[in-house]
């Protein structure tokens, strides 16, 4: 059932405008040089941070479609009746959400790095940092989506809720991209904490929201 | 033989309001119970409580595996009906046939009328293989043919040792025990 659920969520993720988060990611990378100016040295220095902000918004874009449609349509109820724990269905959603934007984002980071005058070393480190951090972002997005499911204007509230919670990941992710291994270990720890904790938070939120 | 569903001295509170208390009920094999009562008396809440989706304030509930059909469709709108129903993991041909929607197998769920969607949710329950069926307002949006098909399905299910708990404000066809909830 879990595998079927991941396949289903992935299909739904890609049936919508799946390219939208990635287009958004590249859009940010394109706009930054225009806003900052063509100073390659300056661009190269801020590039990893910019990519991280772009990745954060890319993970945030589909947040309204992650949990709320399934809650409103009774899919979450039926899953519970089929013996699938809320935590398991949330885990499936996290996996599907990450698969729908993570790998594409890692690929899109290559053209984005060219736009931002990033060197190959920095790009390689940024790719590793993004690969470590994006599962945490996906988990956080699903947890926040579950917390705000069913609320009026839940999408806007979800954005407000997610951003401060994503700050630690952003700090260590961005500094892991530009050098030493200490921040990367911290980033991995935070990403792991978010990925492991989110199913329980989201599962409890789904149960509490039942009426 | 153990009952398929048993409530013992159950109380349920929703939004600070006590919907009912001291409720006892028992459904054994072959039992059909209709929960009746005016709007807002807690029929749907009782069904969701029986399903385990809500939690009682007091009392004990025991249940066997069950299937629920309520207002929520829980089918992917963009998929053809048969694929959408098959997501729930059971062969559905017999059930769609019994409810007269087998010819719609290749039609996307979003194109179905509300009566056909209702039949689809009932088909999911019929295909579930669960001994206990919970039906919330099963006659909503069903035409006469749909109601007759549902009645035949229910009789067949009761005949094989199943049980049905249905909430409805209108009389259901066939023989039902009745439980009236007060507002």
Can you describe this structure in just a few lines?
Chain A has helices spanning 2-15, 19-36, 40-60, 68-72, 75-81, 86-115, 120-148, 154-177, 181-208. Chain A is mainly α and 211 residues long.
Task: Characterise the protein shown here.
- The complex is a heterodimer of chains A (211) and B (183).
- Chain A is mostly helical.
- Chain A has one domain.
- Chain A is built from nine helices and no strands.
- Chain A is elongated, with a radius of gyration of 17 Å.
- Chain B has 183 residues and is an alpha/beta fold.
- Chain B has one domain: 3-Layer(aba) Sandwich (Rossmann fold).
- In chain B, helix 5 links the parallel strand 6 and strand 7.
- In chain B, helix 4 packs parallel to helix 5.
- Chain B is globular and about 45 Å long.
- The model of chain B has no long low-confidence stretch (mean pLDDT 92).
- Classes of the chains: A mainly alpha (211), B alpha/beta (183).
- At the A-B interface, helix 1 and helix 5 of A face strand 5 of B.
